[in-house]
Amino acid sequence: MKYELDFMAEISRCHLYCGTKAANGINNDTVKEKAVAGLEYYRAVTEWNATNGGKPWDYVLISYDEVRLQSSFGYLVSNRVLMVQ
Length: 85
What we know:
By secondary structure, the protein is α+β, with helices and mostly antiparallel strands. The protein has helices at 29-50, 73-78, and strands at 7-10, 15-21, 57-63.
């Protein structure tokens, strides 16, 4: 399965790889599989970076319902969809 994230952001503490999804698609099995794979991949990269001087990576899934013109990036990240592994 090929998976391309919507965008990446680098903030002072980490790299954030971000995907967006309609609220009614968040619980879709394919979305869940991609989230689990993404979380595992970013955990492995973070572990490698920890021993090689790099920043941690994190996966962020944002529901379209949270995105508004006045939404700050910090707000979107703090209100991301939490996926249970």
